[in-house]
Amino acid sequence: MSLLTVENLTIDIAHPRGTLHAVRGVSFHVEKGETLCIVGESGCGKSLTSHALLGLSPRVAKVEAGALSFDGTDLRRLKERQWQKLRGLKMSMIFQDPMTSLNPSFTIGSLLEEVYMRHHPGGRSAARARAIEILKKVGMSNAEERLHQYPHQLSGGLRQRVMIAMGLICGPDLLIADEPTTALDVNIQLQILRLMQQLKEEMGLGIIFVTHDLGLVARFADRVAVMYAGRIVETAPVAELFANPCHPYTRALINCIPVPGKTRPGEPLGAIPGVVPSLIGPQSGCAFRDRCAHATPLCAKTLERKRDGAAHVYECHYTPEETAA
Question: The dihedral of CA 115, 118, 120, 121: what is its sign?
Fold first, then answer.
């Protein structure tokens, strides 16, 4: 049994011009000790999907799913009090910007201790000892002194380590990382990725890593789900996805990555023309067709789900060989 199973997840939001179909029929699963990366441009529904897994969708959103289960628990049936017991303890999340996600009015120690005491008895002394332990685990020196500091006194990389520590302090089984390396320089990004990989191996975590950067995906993922306009258009093991991308959007994303030794300094980088389409009102066909060089009138009709091997699934009317021709 998978640690997390999501089938046909839809998220609709009322809008003055009609219904916004923000997430449309998304399905995936995560195994214990596995990293699933959800990748796509901004506005594709990645964050809304990850928030829905923790019951954190906006109140105006209508969330439905054919199946939404975590370790045998049907998440669709949970009341808010049950969600509060689950969040942080069994499932936790690293939010995007640590500077805005960490309350600037509280010290690092207070933030970490509050998370731990919500789920564990033993008082503040036990919570403080656990906070020091987890800060050391995420590679922060002088952990005891860090407890007395405020978020603004830490660098971006250290704040991100605090966010990871908050997500791990209760020993969850599933960690959802929503673009955890946003606004960090390349060296710090690499440190954070190595840290999460190490913690995954030590703790047996299942990880959902949300990002728009396919370069990070190549370093970190076991499997990749490519998301566009509220749908997952391709899913495959990471090596297979890069070796044989089947959906035109996936190929376009890969072409935007500079290749060492091939991309010359000053050479224009790849780009995808146009923007993500509006998802307000009825939707049909392939949402990428207005930006796709291979689109035909057939692309406006109901999508076809194809397989390229047992674990490689994509949504396109055409195979890679047909689009190449």
Answer: positive
Q: Is residue 231 very low, low, confident or very high in pLDDT (cuts 50, 70, 90)?
A: very high
d(CA 42, CA 273): 15
Distance CA 247, CA 259 (A): 20
- Report how far residue 198's alpha carbon sits from residue 300's, in angstroms, rounded to the nearest whole number: 45
DSSP notation for 34-63 = -EEEEE--TTSSHHHHHHHTTT---TTEEE
Question: Is 150's pLDDT higher than 90?
Answer: yes
CATH of 1-90+174-244, one of 3.40.120.10, 2.40.10.270, 3.40.50.300, 2.60.120.10: 3.40.50.300
Domain regions of the chain by residue span: 1-90+174-244, 96-171
- Residue 27 is inside which H or E element, if any? strand 18-30
Concatenated DSSP letters of 63-113 = EE-SEEEETTEEGGG--HHHHHHHBTTTEEEE-S-HHHHS-TTS-HHHHHH
Q: Contact 50/178 with Cβ under 8 angstroms?
A: yes
- Rounded to whole angstroms, the Cα distance separating 118 from 88 reads 9
Ranges of H-type helices in 204-311:
214-220, 238-243, 248-255
Cα-based torsion angle of the residue sequence 215, 217, 220, 221 in order, rounded to the nearest 10 degrees: -160
Looking at residue 325, its pLDDT comes to 65
248 and 59 in contact (C-beta within 8 Å)?
no
187: number of Cβ within 10 Å: 9
Q: Retrieve residue 252's tokens.
A: 């376009």
Among 193, 109, 177, residue whose Cα is nearest residue 148: 109
Residue 264 pLDDT > 80, yes or no? Answer: no
Of 101 and 98, more confident: 101
